[in-house]
Amino acid sequence: MMEAKKKEHLKLEKNSGLYFVIGMTLILALVYTALEWKTFDSQSEWDTSQTILKNLDEIPPLTIQKLPPPPKPKTIVTPEIKIAENDDDVIEDLIKSTESDSNKEIITLKDVDFEEPAPVVDEVSFMVIEDVPIFPGCEGADDKRACFQEKMQKHIRRNFRYPAEAQEMGLQGKVYLQFTVQKDGNIGSLKLRGPHKILENEASRIISKLPKMEPGKQRGQGVKVPFSIPITFRLQ
């Protein structure tokens, strides 16, 4: 068999290390050049001139204004001085004293009667108000206070509903409530206190069905009138 002859000067393995170093040097040079490469946008002379012309158009034109003429100097009038002759009688005015008269009696605060203004009444209790609120149907009653209380009891009995949930839980007791008949006759400012929220909600529902009333009056002026009443929840 014939063996392939190799020429010593054509062997690439002999200089592979040198070729590797040269290749790495070229690659690093290209990478550095790419990173350091900078470009700038060129601006044409035409764009610059257009910007300058645009700025010149924004400058307002010069205007010449005429100033008004200066005011004329005022004429100074010299007062005429007359010298009185010695024979003229000079009338002197008496100078009144500004000091207080020590003989005049000084009035003390106790001697002056001050009338205290009547207090502004905004709310009066149902038990002491002069004209109680009128429940619908009590307009012709002789005792409107008693009629109001009677109508309230009838309203509670007519609208009373024992909540089923309260019956299942065995809830019972009294719900103390207070509401206010406002100056316009509407019901407002409801306050409740009871053994359970379910019973309080039922009492609130009953009061919400109250009709509009004629407002109470104190000294002929409409005022707010608070009214308190308990609602009893009792299981049979």
From TrEMBL:
Domain of life: Bacteria
Its membrane topology: Single-pass membrane protein
Domain TonB C-terminal: 147-236
InterPro entries xrefs: TonB, TonB-dependent_transducer, TonB/TolA_C, TonB_C
Record carries keyword Transmembrane helix: yes
Keyword Transmembrane: yes
Protein localization: Cell inner membrane
Keywords from the named record: Cell inner membrane, Cell membrane, Membrane, Protein transport, Transmembrane, Transmembrane helix, Transport
Pfam families according to UniProt: TonB_C
PROSITE patterns according to UniProt: TONB_CTD (PS52015)
Family: Belongs to the TonB family.
Name of the protein in question: Energy transducer TonB
